[in-house]
Amino acid sequence: MAELGAIASIVQLADVALRVSGEIRAFLDAYKTTGQDVKSLRDALRDVEANVRNLVQYTAEFKKSKNTTEEFEVLSETITHALTGYGADVLGAKHLLPSKPADKVKEKVHWVLNKRKAQEIAERLNQRNTRLITALEITGRLTESLFPLFRKTLT
Question: What is the pTM of this model?
Answer without folding.
Answer: 0.59
